User: Which sequence fits this backbone?
């Protein structure tokens, strides 16, 4: 029996790691990192934190797993694909990977409330979970790969249930981190189609203009899969207090992330170190606590770790070796006076309540 609380992680780029980083998440974390020894093509080589084994060890039985493929114009400083069709093809390769992991017994897609309830019951029945599949709700991070709005229905048909319209920079539908401007006409049509299909809008990565525009327009369920608080790191990637309040008013859940540059001020990629910047799990707890203080309750915050989202141990808390160590936040919350029922909400209850309502 696993005595750790059942945990839901609201944001993991599993297929990106498998397809673009060529990582076999079925092997142990030590073997995965050993395979990358000496590789220099990406900054986090040899520093991965996520495998299926580590998810199970951390009692993380359900995740929001992404497809992600950005469209960029030639000459862009951002990585991506030079046509929406190429980006769409990349997401379909990622989907094929998820389906292969399902066939191998490592994952299970969750599309309906009934599937959700059965999966959670299996993971919380007190029996051994070491060989049980990780449940996943499929989300699209950045909508650039949708060739046109008609592709939303195609994606919904294969299991997509959440979309974040933007990622970094100016997107085809909405503008994201480090950009300005509201939704464009295609972005407005995208939200209308998502509303029709009763999909989840992910407010993560929307710049301030697009955030307020989207909240004013969207009628369906809204969450923020992986966002931290601007009060700690003053950057447009984080949420201001007013944005947090607006999400709470919409009964949203905000997943707190573990990327060091979102946790400590003045982080410099490739130069700062977790120990030097004093980046530890206590900072994640501080973000969780801050959202709870604004809300006046523990109903609107959870975990959206974003671990191995193009960074690894070189850019996350120094007291985290693998994703299983996310469990360290719960004793820290208890020292702040959070009760058992609060821990359950933050670990999985809030995500579960939201998903049951949205699916």
Assistant:
């Amino acid at each position: 029996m696993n005595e750790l609380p059942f945990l839901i992680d609201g944001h993991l780029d599993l297929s990106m790691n498998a397809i673009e980083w060529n990582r076999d998440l079925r092997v142990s974390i030590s073997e995965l990192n050993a395979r990358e020894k000496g590789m220099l093509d990406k900054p986090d080589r040899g520093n991965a934190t996520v495998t299926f084994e580590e998810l199970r060890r951390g009692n993380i039985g359900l995740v929001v797993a992404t497809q992600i493929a950005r469209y960029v114009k030639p000459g862009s400083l951002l990585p991506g694909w030079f046509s929406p069709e190429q980006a769409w093809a990349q997401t379909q390769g990622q989907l094929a990977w998820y389906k292969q992991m399902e066939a191998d017994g490592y994952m299970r897609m969750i599309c309906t409330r009934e599937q959700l309830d059965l999966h959670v019951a299996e993971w919380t029945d007190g029996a051994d979970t070491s060989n049980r599949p990780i449940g996943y709700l499929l989300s699209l991070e950045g909508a650039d790969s949708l060739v046109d709005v008609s592709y939303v229905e195609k994606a919904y048909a294969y299991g997509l249930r959440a979309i974040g319209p933007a990622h970094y920079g100016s997107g085809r539908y909405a503008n994201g981190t480090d950009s300005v401007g509201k939704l464009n006409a295609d972005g407005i049509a995208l939200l209308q189609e998502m509303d029709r299909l009763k999909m989840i809008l992910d407010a993560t990565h929307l710049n301030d203009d697009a955030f307020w525009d989207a909240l004013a327009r969207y009628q369906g369920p809204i969450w923020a899969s992986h966002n931290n608080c601007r009060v700690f790191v003053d950057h447009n990637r984080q949420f201001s207090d007013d944005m947090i309040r607006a999400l709470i008013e919409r009964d949203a859940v905000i997943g707190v992330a573990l990327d060091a540059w979102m946790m400590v001020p003045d982080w410099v990629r490739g130069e700062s170190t977790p120990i030097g910047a004093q980046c530890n799990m206590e900072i994640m707890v501080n973000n969780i606590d801050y959202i709870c203080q604004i809300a006046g309750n523990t109903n609107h915050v959870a975990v959206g770790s974003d671990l191995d989202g193009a960074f690894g141990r070189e850019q996350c808390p120094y007291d985290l070796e693998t994703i299983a160590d996310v469990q360290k936040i719960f004793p820290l919350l208890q020292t702040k006076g959070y009760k058992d029922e609060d821990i359950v909400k933050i670990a999985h209850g809030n995500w579960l309540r939201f998903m049951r309502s949205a699916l």
